[in-house]
Amino acid sequence: MIFYLTLIFACQLVGELLKVALELPVPGPVIGMVLLFAGLMIKRGIPEDLAEVGYTFLSNLSLLFVPAGVGVMLHIALIGEQALAITLALVGSTLATIAVTALVMRAMSRAEDADTGRSTDG
Q1: Which residue spans traverse the membrane (predicted)?
Q2: How many helices and strands (H and E) does the chain possess?
């Protein structure tokens, strides 16, 4: 279990190092998550202990919102000044996420149909 926890943190560290070294506009933890995902795809599965560590993180995820809530309360005036921009960004990113998800689902469905020999035309 400690190995997989260390693995998750190591992926995050490597992501942070890549972000700084390559001056990427993506957060280091996101890069680390992609690295971990790539490793799991190569391994073709999720080890049971890694799944347990992930489940533990997810079950305690609400604790990670406490600092964000404090930040919101600290800067509530600034948020009020930028309400229109924040609203447009939230709506735009939500619509973009829905569109990308639909496109990926459509592409994966077509790939699955091609693998099984079924037609998607009707």
Answers
A1: 25-42, 54-77, 83-104
A2: 6, 0
